[in-house]
Fold:
Amino acid sequence: MKLSGKVAIVTGGSRGIGFATARILSENGATVVLTAKNQERLEKASSEIPNSLGIAADIKNKNDVKNVVSKTVAKFGQIDILVNNAGIFPKIKELHMIDEDEWNEILDVNLTGQFRFTKEAIPYLQKTSGSIINISSDAGLKAYQGFNADAYSATKAALILLTKCWALEYAKDKIRVNCICPGVVDTDMTKPFLKTQKDKEFMDNEHPIGRIGQPEEVGKAVLYFASDDASWTTGAILAVDGGESIK
Structure:
């Protein structure tokens, strides 16, 4: 029980990597607050995870974000762990075809949303010498030919650098800030790209280890960073990607 007595907030916690992460944190003793936009899906997810609470919020709305943090503290008295996992993926388009509203939507959710949650959680993490884990992507580490999701890649690259900025900024408070960069993981976000057996084989072969990842494999990396096992680790960028980013 590596996280006994800890309180965690997991954004985008109703499915995919967020749900798997929340379950693993709970299994290791943490009380977990899940947040996501879809109330029905959030309630279902929370019902499947012991010691969890779902609080619906639109990450683009600063008052919603404040509400999640304030309710967490009111009910549980503290925040020890923040997992900035929420994110959306755009339609694949070349840059000159992207509408400005589409661009801004991705930045608002994937980057400014992470800023909003971190900003609100910091005063409480300062009290507990807590841990922040940012979920970025391989797409933030390097460019991929034909990927054509520029706004997504930009937000994920920015989150990597912000991880390092925040790690230095709050080291004085003993807050550790680390980042995980998954490759392609089997989630609802990636399903549209894995419709046929040929698609699946192609994507498996893109990863030197020979397959795409599972959400739990990212969740276990989050557990490491959240626990005292990583007590001397901050500002780290960990690729959990079957070797995809080193090709």
